[in-house]
Amino acid sequence: MIGQIAVGVAASFLVWAYMSLKPPPSRVCGTPGGPPVTSPRIKLSDGRYLAYKEAGVSKEKAKHKVILIHGFDTSKDLNFPVPQDIIEELGIYFLSFDRAGYGDSDPYPSRSVKSEAYDIQELADKLEIGSKFYVIGFSMGGYPAWSCLRYIPHRLLGAALVVPFVHYWWPCLPAELAKQAFRKLLPQDQWTFRVAHYAPWLFNWWMTQKWFHSLSLLEGNMSILCSQDLEMVKKLSSKPNPGQEKIRQQGLYESLYRDIMAGYAQWEFDPADIPDLFPNKEGSVHIWQGCEDRIIPFEINRFIAKKLPWIQYHEVPNAGHMMMFDPKVCESIVRELLPAE
Ligand SMILES: *[C@@H]1O[C@H](CO)[C@@H](O)[C@H](O)[C@H]1NC(C)=O
């Protein structure tokens, strides 16, 4: 009798553990039960679809073609408010896309740092924007930008990494520096990144359980934002921001959770080993960091920029993580990246 009860309890525990570890089924765009496809898409060579959006001057008239890589919990409808007259003056064509699993782009269970660069390359080729182009990666979109620097450097005219993602387990980081920067994060965010890095199989459970706090921003806890960021959030929330409802429509797991797991997985390369893309100065690579940013501690990007002297490092005083929504900063980013004629 006691044996049967024990077996029953053990079996229920296993079922419960299995259910909470297993990610929920995704709701793929354009499949029965899934959301409808409402954006133009290209078909990648592995059969996945990637949704995109074009903006700025037309592809035919453009002097500069720039691929924008969105961050965490945003999409191709990201807000990068470069003033219209600057777009016209410099002749910029912007191409943005939903990274795998976000918006209208198919989920990709094998998604990795590396796959992001190849998605970008195929997108550029399918849309025939030319053999070379610029990329700008924002925040979490910093890891796909690093991936481009590493895997498709021959396709780049230049790159900007804006308040870019940092990986606390990059081998080039001195242990003390990594620890010090990591400890500046909220403990619950530290745990979230640890689970993603060391135990990705546990990540779905971690993000959905109610016993411990997980990622602060997803819980609506704003204490990681500096005062400049809070002000910007307030300013932005008063304006309409179309497309937001589509970001997570295929499920949190395929969009947000997998993004964190891909970023914090072990990388196949160390950014500090990337050779100078433009030894003859025919292009440039930039990192933009806000001094007050508490989501991305400046210590790490400052260190990487010192290690890679061919990167132009811009530390913006009195600016937080949300400085990418400041039109003046946006103007500086494109002016530094794109040569004026
Ligand atoms: C937000 O998180 C911090 C650190 O984990 C905590 O001290 C604070 O009480 C939280 N705030 C809210 C509103 O939950």
TrEMBL record:
<dbReference type="Pfam" id="PF00561">
    <property type="entry name" value="Abhydrolase_1"/>
</dbReference>
<dbReference type="InterPro" id="IPR029058">
    <property type="entry name" value="AB_hydrolase_fold"/>
</dbReference>
<feature type="signal peptide">
    <location>
        <begin position="1"/>
        <end position="17"/>
    </location>
</feature>
<protein>
    <submittedName>
        <fullName>OLC1v1004583C1</fullName>
    </submittedName>
</protein>
<dbReference type="InterPro" id="IPR000073">
    <property type="entry name" value="AB_hydrolase_1"/>
</dbReference>
<keyword id="KW-0732">Signal</keyword>
<feature type="domain" description="AB hydrolase-1">
    <location>
        <begin position="66"/>
        <end position="326"/>
    </location>
</feature>
<dbReference type="GO" id="GO:0016787">
    <property type="term" value="F:hydrolase activity"/>
</dbReference>
